[in-house]
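Throughout our pipeline, every protein is held as a single compact record rather than as scattered files. The remainder of this section carries one protein's record, kept here as part of the documentation.

===
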Amino acid sequence: MGLIANLKNIFTKKVIADIDEKNYLGVDINNIYNDVENTSKLCSKLKNTYKDKEQVIAEYDRVNKIHTSIQQIEKMNKKQLAEFENCANNYIAIKNDKVEYVDRIKGAGQQFDYLQDYEENIDDVIKNLKSVEQRQRDVKNDITYIEGEKGDLLYGKERLIKAQKFVKILMIGLLTIFAFSALILSVVYTNNDVDIFIPSIIMIVVIGFFSLWIYIFRRYVIHEIKKNNILMQRAVELLNKVKLKYVNNEQFLAYEYNKYKVKSGDMLEDRWKQFQQNKKDKSNIHKISGNIIILEDDIERVLKKHDIQSINYILDNIDIYLNKDNRYTGMENIKQDKKTLKNTLEQYNNEIQLITKILIDVRNNDTTNEKAITKMINEVII
């Protein structure tokens, strides 16, 4: 009905009777004689009007056939009408299903069709890919953990080295105190002839105690530094091994991602599901197409019983025939459309008559070389 709507818009504001013959299409009719350019404009307008008229005639014929078919369908008995309406409703429902499947496939496009080359082993590929991704996540966690342990070892080693330096300073300080104390005792003994046995014993016991503590702490620090070095070496070796696994996994994943045009195993799984859904939709479309043909045959069979020939028009506009209300509404709309089309044809005929009248007058007064304008007009006037 789009053509009819366009025709209504065209002719609601312009009526042929209102056209000023002295200034038609922007052409000054008084000065049109022997003017090739203005004559060409009118010839083009006449050609276009003929084409538009043919479209209106074709549309009127289509609308008239629908009008006739509705009248014929209304003459069916209740049983035949019920059979037709049932077929028509099923036909529209199944066509809507087909449109839904087609739209869904169009929405997905053909971007997943490449997966048909990998149908045989795609499930194993997805399983393996997701497994490697999980291992890669574990490897990343291991790297993070080992690097954390390595950082703790480095921090611990720094503290042990500081402790080792502190012990060295403590030993020097203790020796200095021992030497200074011994000197004091010697001077006191030499000058005052004082008994220094007990003070000497006390000094030896105290210095011996601190010396033993420093020795034990020094041995502990040295042991811990050696232990730290061993653990650091193991951490570095383990980190290198884990990083090698990470690189191998990363290379494998990059190759697989590029091969299957995805960014993850989950993405490949989703695409595979979509591909399978598209296959099912295509299969359903094939089945539906078969059912549509069967329903078309059923509708054709029912219509031919009543000698209704406009079967293609009915199938193309099946929604009009679904029930009595639709047919009544369709009939009213068609009556209005036929009226609009008749008025449009009349207006086109008037316009053709007007342009033809002007062109014949121009042709009769043609004084151009070799009658160029006459030849131009003769090509369009029927």
